[in-house]
Amino acid sequence: MQTKNKIYITAAELSDMLGVSVGYGYKIIRLLNEELKKDGFLTISGKVPVRFFEERWYGLKEHGDAVERMVR
């Protein structure tokens, strides 16, 4: 799956990428969207921004062209 030019990722795409069921992909998206809502962002059911998913799942944050691992 190429997410470079995509803004949102769907449950089916998460399912393929992570090797989990589509239902579990929806569960992940619901959790991430709840987190976004708590921070005051608008969300779309069944989709989550690719950058936010990558940041939360892999701990990666983009800075310009470089991708750095976040330290928590």
Can you offer a commentary on this structure?
The protein has 3 helices and 4 strands, in the order E-H-H-E-H-E-E. The protein is of the alpha+beta class and 72 residues long. The protein has one domain (8-69). The longest helix has 17 residues, at 22-38. It is globular. The protein starts with 7 loop residues before the first strand and ends with a strand. The mean pLDDT is 84.
In oligomeric terms, what are we looking at? Answer: single chain
Number of strands: 4
Q: For the residues shown, what is the average pLDDT?
A: 84
Question: Gyration radius, to the nearest Å?
Answer: 12 Å
Poorly predicted residue ranges:
none
Total helices: the number is 3
What string gives the helices and strands in order?
Answer: EHHEHEE
Strand content: 15-25%
Class from secondary-structure proportions: alpha+beta
How many domains, in number, for the residues?
1
Shape: globular
Q: Give the distance, in angstroms, between the N- and C-terminal Cα atoms.
A: 28 Å
Helix content: 40-55%
Strands side by side in the biggest sheet: 1-2
- Give the biggest beta sheet: 2 strands, antiparallel
Features:
single chain; 72 residues; alpha+beta; two-stranded antiparallel ribbon; two-stranded antiparallel sheet; 3 helices; 47% helix
